[in-house]
Design goal:
alpha+beta; about 30% strand; 4-stranded antiparallel beta sheet; Cyclic Phosphodiesterase, Chain: A; disordered N terminus; 5 helices
Length: about 200
């Protein structure tokens, strides 16, 4: 019995972490990664570099590795019913006292996708806690957080709140990320099929 409990706790402890997000195309990702690198080089804030630039739809969750193929298949089925839409990114905003991000402009299509994906995750993957996020969904692309010290935040925000940037892209799929123990990797991207 002790061995069974030990095996159970081992599996619980090492189930992989996943999250689901919307990624801009490579050219925009490269531009935003350069901003993340600026924070690394000037403010010693490098945690945001542990994932590609993205808009989080479902925050990190654990899921059984043995069920990973089902997770991918489900995500492909979900995406096949979705429509492409435009996303606008403009300037910077912040969640004081540590987070600075690229602002995602209000978008009914993005909020609709978020709500449908939340419901899908609750019904198919038993991720009930994620539904509590609906009223707090603030789409953004993080460029610095967690390891950005409060003093550095004040200095950086005084600079970045005045900076102007503008990007737009067509969202044509959602990406499943998996944590490898050090950083987030792209596991698969499920394309929207409805134009």
């Amino acid at each position: 019995m002790y061995q069974d409990l030990q095996a159970f706790s081992y599996n619980m402890k090492f189930d992989p972490l996943y999250f689901i997000g919307l990624m801009p195309p490579e050219d925009i990702r490269l531009e935003i990664t350069r901003i993340k690198e600026y924070f690394r080089d000037h403010y010693d804030s490098k945690h945001a570099l542990k994932s590609p630039p993205h808009i989080t739809l479902i925050p990190p969750f654990t899921y059984r590795e043995s069920q990973e193929k089902n997770l991918i298949t489900d995500l492909h089925k979900f995406s096949a019913e979705e429509n492409i839409f435009e996303v606008l990114l403009e300037n910077f905003n912040a969640f004081p006292p540590r987070v600075i991000f690229v602002e995602v402009l209000k978008n009914d299509s993005l909020f609709g996708l978020f709500r449908k994906l939340m419901l899908f995750a609750e019904q198919n993957w038993n991720l009930n806690a994620v539904g509590e996020r609906e009223n707090r969904f603030t789409p953004h692309i993080t460029v610095a957080f967690k390891d950005l010290k409060k003093e550095a935040f004040r200095d950086a925000w005084s600079l970045f709140q005045a900076k102007k940037i503008k990007y737009h892209f067509i969202a044509d799929g959602i990406t499943l990320f998996r944590h490898n123990g050090k950083c987030w990797e792209i596991l698969t991207t499920s394309r929207f099929t409805n134009k």
